[in-house]
Amino acid sequence: MNEKDYLKDISEIKDIMNRSTRFISLSGLSGILAGTYALLGAFIAYKLLEDVNYNFDYSTEILKTNYTILGSLKNSLIGLALIVAFLSAITGYVLTKKKAKKNNENIWTPASRQLISSFAIPMITGGVFIFLLIERGIYGIAAPAALIFYGLALINASKYTLSQVRFLGVLEILLGLLALVFFGNGLLFWILGFGILHIIYGALMYFKIERN
Amino acid sequence: MKDLIKNINKLFDHRIRLGIMSALMVNDTLDFNTLKDLLDVTDGNLASHIKALERAEYIKIRKSFIGKKTNTKYNATHLGTLEFKKHLAALERIINNKP
User: Fold this and answer.
1) Domain range holding B62?
2) Quick one: which of A7, A23, B68, B94 could link to A111 by a disulfide (CB 3.0–4.6 Å)?
3) pLDDT band at residue A57 using 50, 70 and 90 as cut-offs
4) Nearest CA to CA, how far is A44 from chain B (Å)?
5) Considering CB atoms only, which of A1, A7, A21 is closest to B27?
6) What is the CATH number of the domain that holds B38?
7) Where is the Winged helix DNA-binding domain (chain B) (predicted)?
8) Per-residue pLDDT at A92 exceeds 80
């Protein structure tokens, strides 16, 4: 065996270690679509808020923790967020499955299971946290907390997938913290974090990885 | 050069056995089908290489039941981990020791 073969051995070891711990067939296209759903959702939310003659300059109003949004409006906003999340998850699943098939990668592997559970734990924690806050009439923290928990979930999951996901997570957390600094602009930061950032990230991934 | 090759482990001088060990270095346990997909080999081929590694006590086989189906999982032993690290170090030394 010569030196070249030993080099090949080392690259093979690296490749197998990577492939057995990372699920890399995440679709960039699903990021673009998830971002688009988030933008549509935010637009509908904006219209709903406008419809109830809601003064959109809510930077002062929201500070009152027992601020009472009409019950039905609250429910439709929560429903809207859930629909956007659900649609994004379904789209992500379908496109990822398609991509995995193309890459000849199995979709249900130890790596993908780790990916899902490491993402789901911070995300579900965040979801329950936000739901309980809203139940107590604390609305202002919902958008910043959603961004922060989502960012933490991404960073946690990035160990089991493309390392670039970690960077997206850091940006989401920064946006979440900024949303707290510029309190009362939740919808704006929601649009930036879940809409614009997803579209940019998805497009970068799509052109960088999927097109070659 | 002879000195350099001394620590090369003959058992790891094969693509599939090297692959099995690499995967078990970074995963606590893996089952047969996952290894098969990962290394892209046939059942019989994988089974024979697993047996070779097991005979050397580099990996351990754990059988459990999920309902009525057997679920076989593999993990690297302490000895296997040590030997693999030695092998890796030997590979690195050879590559860094260009004439």
Assistant:
1) 2-96
2) A23
3) very low
4) 44
5) A21
6) 1.10.10.10
7) 16-95
8) yes
For the residues A61-79, what does the mean pLDDT come to?
63
Could you tell me if B28 lies within 8 Å of chain A, comparing CB atoms? no
Nearest to B91 among A10, A17, A110 (CB): A10
Choose between A149 and A56: higher pLDDT: A149
Reading the block at residue A166, the tokens are: 């970690």
pLDDT score at A59: 47
Contact B38 A16 (CB under 8 A): yes
Q: Quick: pLDDT tens for B14-24.
A: 889 999 999 99
pTM: 0.80
Distance CA A106, CA A112 (A): 9
Chain A residues within 8 A of B18 when measuring between CB atoms: 9, 12-13
Note whether B94 contacts A9, CB cutoff 8 Å.
Answer: no
Partner A contacted by B27 (CB < 8 A):
yes
